[in-house]
Amino acid sequence: MNPTAGRSRDPSRGRERATRILDAAEDLLLRHGARRVTVEDVAVGANIGKGTVYLHWETREKLFAAVFDRAVARAMSELLVAMRTRPSTCLPHQFAHDYFLAVMHRPLLRGLLLADPELLGRLARQHDPAWDERHHLVSERYFRLLAEYGVLRAELGADEVAYAFQATFEGFVRAEGELTRSESAAPPAAAQPAATTLERRADLLARTVELAFEDSRPVTTDDLRSLAADVVDLFTDLVDRRGFADLVDLVDRAELGAPAAS
Amino acid sequence: MNPTAGRSRDPSRGRERATRILDAAEDLLLRHGARRVTVEDVAVGANIGKGTVYLHWETREKLFAAVFDRAVARAMSELLVAMRTRPSTCLPHQFAHDYFLAVMHRPLLRGLLLADPELLGRLARQHDPAWDERHHLVSERYFRLLAEYGVLRAELGADEVAYAFQATFEGFVRAEGELTRSESAAPPAAAQPAATTLERRADLLARTVELAFEDSRPVTTDDLRSLAADVVDLFTDLVDRRGFADLVDLVDRAELGAPAAS
DNA sequence: TTTTGACCGGATTTGAAATCTGGTCATACG
DNA sequence: CGTATGACCAGATTTCAAATCCGGTCAAAA
Lengths: 262, 262
Description:
The structure is a homodimer of 262-residue chains. Chain A has 262 residues and is mainly alpha-helical. Chain A has a single domain (13-256), classed as Tetracycline Repressor, domain 2, CATH 1.10.357.10. Chain A is built from twelve helices and no strands. The first copy, chain A, starts with 12 loop residues before the first helix and ends in a 6-residue tail after the last helix. The model of chain A is unreliable at 1-7 and 243-262 (pLDDT under 50). At the A-B interface, helix 8, helix 9 and helix 10 of A face helix 8, helix 9 and helix 10 of B. The structure holds a DNA duplex (30 and 30 nucleotides).
């Protein structure tokens, strides 16, 4: 059907195709949920053969994970841009605020984190230990950095703040899920949940983080700039390695041929 | 089989029997999970006939809910005792600390809140709207009280604090679940989660709540005593109405006969 | 009047056949 | 020569009916 089938001349072709697959998958995922989306659906949606999908991801699950990863990477990139523009974004309270909103504005992430069980199926349960480990490592380094720059309350260990921050953040995220769940079950015009707008709830989270974990003494502008640069590096590393690792790998393999194969 | 079958003379008999049923149910629930426990199992465990169970609760689900309620009521009672002994327990950070521990020390509540899906089945999903409403109401009043006594940060509305407190508390509870889950999946001797003991984690929660929500100016001893009394009243009301409402109702009906019936 | 357990019907489980779909690979194509 | 494809396979999932189970009732016993 596709007249341009066969070997492609353009080296960026594979990458472009990969994103097209991801786009198709994301769209279908969002509309029908992981359970109802087949690899063939995705292939059709991307105007390619089913087998081609497997030239990019070795597994359906990994394809879906890549969709998720891309969304995370995009949210992260958004934050990184913000961090470069406004260094204070790297402070925990700003970070929590912006990350919270970045996640909540993405239907895919929102759906996954609120664990709408239908939307992404067992993908939510897909606890990739490698990701957890990396996430843990980055979080650890982030808070260690903050501690070194004197941003954190001195009486708390960086690892303790990391733990408490994580718990608090997740608490606000889950509360968000509770909201959407109860608002869909339309209560009899009562129980308006206090913090009415998403913005307000993000503010509440930010305040909580700031007051609970940050030292009240402000950081100097220079320190802040330097810290922001460090944090940007740290997270850039995370995004690069995680967000597109598989994709890049496979695109390279597809475009350049397997280097070490016989 | 029971030689004392038939009409009982002792009016406290029904109540005693009800607790025996609850005990049996709790034991079985804890050991086998809601899915595997039948009403007959409970009846056998309590040495009574199956039909008798239905003299106390009109439904299996309500029986199980009563088990849960009793556990909550006991945790609450524990807190109420503490509050009378040490009025500062009614301050949000102390309250969070103690309630957190009270819950985590009860396998039934721990299991339910950590949503071990096997342990209590759909009971976890059993969102009794009446309970939610009451819970919401009590929480609202509690924080309003705190605000009136000047315990809360002045710049935050009582309802906002209620929201944020709930989110934070649940975040720490869920983090606890994450811990037990990952420790059972024995990671390769790495990733020790910073806050090593339950106590420490409770402290972390308490600190977070105190710094984020409470005014830094201490309350006078008199005010604190008065506040504690009010809070005790408020929660006593909750426990009385909720914890044993059904049970008391039915025991009364069983012991005294339906008062308004023909 | 209280307690009981046999009994009923809907809900759940079981098991086997039918269907679907993730993943492979021989082939077509440039 | 290497890429793209879709027919194909096996295992997973779904279907559907029969068998079983169990929540809840109620006539009878104590």
